[in-house]
From TrEMBL:
Pfam family of the protein (one): LacAB_rpiB
Keyword tags: Isomerase
Xref: SUPFAM superfamilies: Ribose/Galactose isomerase RpiB/AlsB
A molecular-function term among this protein's GO annotations: intramolecular oxidoreductase activity, interconverting aldoses and ketoses
Name of this chain's protein: Ribose 5-phosphate isomerase
List of residues binding D-ribulose 5-phosphate: D8, H9, G66, T67, G68, I69, G70, N99, R109, R132, R136
The keyword Magnesium appears for this protein: no
Any one GO BP annotation for this protein: carbohydrate metabolic process
Family as reported in the entry's similarity comment: Belongs to the LacAB/RpiB family.
Organism domain of life: Bacteria
Sequence intervals crossing the membrane: none
Length: 145
């Protein structure tokens, strides 16, 4: 599994924490920034990460801003991206099982690192159920062409 991670300044601290978690779990990842806590524009990071997932460079991504909302709205502008904002474990599981989400978004100012790590663990370890859900996901993919 090829994983890419990105954040703006609002998500920087949580991104660094999640990177530590991924290292502990020996899960390889690439960090597309931001690499400092200085203020930056979340659409720029969202576009870079989303395009790299959409073109197959990576299988999935994690994007973090202050709320997880702006960075997810921006990522979902890229064709083929299904970015899901998850601040609980149930949503993390079903974003994968029913929506085949390929990017997880979270808010660094909303949840703490313990819950965020659990959400990441579930997101990365849950598969897509397919079946009727695949038909619905295909309908979504057709919408943004
Ligand atoms: C940055 O201040 C903040 O607006 C951003 O991180 C995010 O929360 C936007 O949705």
């Amino acid at each position: 599994m090829k994983l890419v991670i990105g954040a703006d300044h609002g998500g920087f601290d949580l991104k660094e924490n999640i990177k530590e978690y991924l290292k502990e779990q020996q899960i390889a990842f690439t960090d597309y920034g931001t690499l400092t806590p200085e203020r930056c524009d979340y659409p720029v990071v969202a576009k870079k990460v989303a395009e790299a997932v959409a073109d197959g460079t990576f299988d999935c991504g994690i994007l973090i801003c202050g709320t997880g909302i702006g960075i997810g709205i921006a990522a979902n502008k890229v064709h083929g991206i299904r970015a899901a904002l998850c601040h609980d474990m149930f949503s993390a599981e079903y974003s994968r099982r029913h929506n085949d989400a390929n990017i997880l978004t979270m808010g660094g100012r909303v949840i703490g690192p313990g819950l965020a790590r659990e959400i990441v663990r579930i997101f990365l370890n849950t598969g897509f159920d397919g079946g009727r859900h695949a038909e619905r996901v295909a309908m979504i993919t057709k919408m943004d062409k």
